[in-house]
Amino acid sequence: MKRARPIIAIDGPVGAGKSVAARELARELGYSYLNTGAMYRAVAVAAREAGVDPDDPNVEERLKPVLAGLEINFDGEKIFLNGHDISDKISQPEIGDLASRLSALRTVRERMRELQRAAGADGGVVMEGRDIGTAIFPDAEFKFFLDADLRVRAARRYEELKKKGASITEQEVLDQMIERDRRDSGRELAPLKRADDAIVIDSSKLSIKDVVAAMKAKINARINAAKDLKRA
User: Fold this and answer.
1) For residue 213, with 0-12 CB atoms within 10 Å meaning exposed, 13-18 middle and 19 or more buried, which class applies?
2) What is the distance between the alpha carbons of residues 98 and 40, in angstroms, rounded to a whole number?
3) Closest listed residue to residue 134, CA positions, set 195, 200, 198
4) What is the pTM assigned to this prediction?
5) How many CA atoms lie within 13 A of 7 on its CB side?
6) pLDDT tens for each residue of 134-177
7) CA geometry: angle 65, 117, 107, nearest 5 deg
């Protein structure tokens, strides 16, 4: 299907700067912004509030009614679960860990895929996550894979959590990130990986402004090349 405006997919591990870069890129382009990682954390909040144990052998059955009644909405940087603002809850380290565990379940991924595809179907959206360019929109017009050195990512995440008042050490953040990377990359369903046609950007030594500028340059170059081809 030909979309009036493109889908821009940004994938990568936690701490690479995806959320801030995607939000700023969407703002500069006048596109919608969708944080799929926040959607998985919303699922984790819903599961925790419903008393679902991720180690329960019947966890997928327990999750089905939770997922069926799930309503996730965004208002700027705020995220709402079934009408309630959960913006503060999703930043908790235990919610991030639970989201990673639940995201490996087929029932969760199928429901999230439905919601994410519906949200981005018309284009004009910047979507960021871990499998946007590989599983959600493999036909996205623009794909980026944003990465950074592990210790740089851990330091960024630690500073982010510290500002929010979390009681955690930088070593604990690093250990959690190592485990999170292992789990996200090793899961059977839609693992974290770079799409073959994704443009890789290493943000280790780049500011968010630099990352966004690099993405815009790649997007504009391809759009201009396509226009030149039409005129030829």
Assistant:
1) middle
2) 9
3) 195
4) 0.85
5) 25
6) 999 999 999 999 999 999 999 999 998 888 888 899 999 999 99
7) 30
Query: Can you list the pairs that 27-33 forms with residues at least 24 positions away whose Cβ atoms lie under 8 Å?
Result: 28/212, 28/216, 29/126, 29/216, 29/219, 31/5, 31/124, 31/125, 31/126, 32/124, 32/125, 32/126, 33/74, 33/125, 33/126
When computed from its CA atoms, the radius of gyration of the chain, rounded to whole angstroms, is 18
Find the helix or strand (DSSP H, E) in which 79 lies. strand 78-81
- Beta strands 72-75; 32-35: pairing state: unpaired
Contact 108, 39 (CB under 8 A): no
Cα distance between residue 10 and residue 30, in whole Å: 16
DSSP 123: S
CA 99/CA 91 separation, integer angstroms: 11
**Distance separating alpha carbons of residues 151 and 174, to the nearest angstrom:** 7
Element at 84 (helix H, strand E): strand 84-85
The neighbour count for residue 199, using CB atoms within 10 Å, is: 18
User: Which residues in the chain show pLDDT less than 50?
Assistant: none
Say if residues 13 and 184 touch (Cβ distance below 8 Å): yes
Cβ atoms within 10 Å of 69's Cβ, excluding its own: 10
What's the pLDDT tens digit per position in 62-84? 999 999 989 998 887 789 999 99
User: Quick one: pLDDT at residue 46?
Assistant: 96
**β-strands 7-11, 32-35 pairing:** unpaired
Tokens for 214, please give them. 């690099």
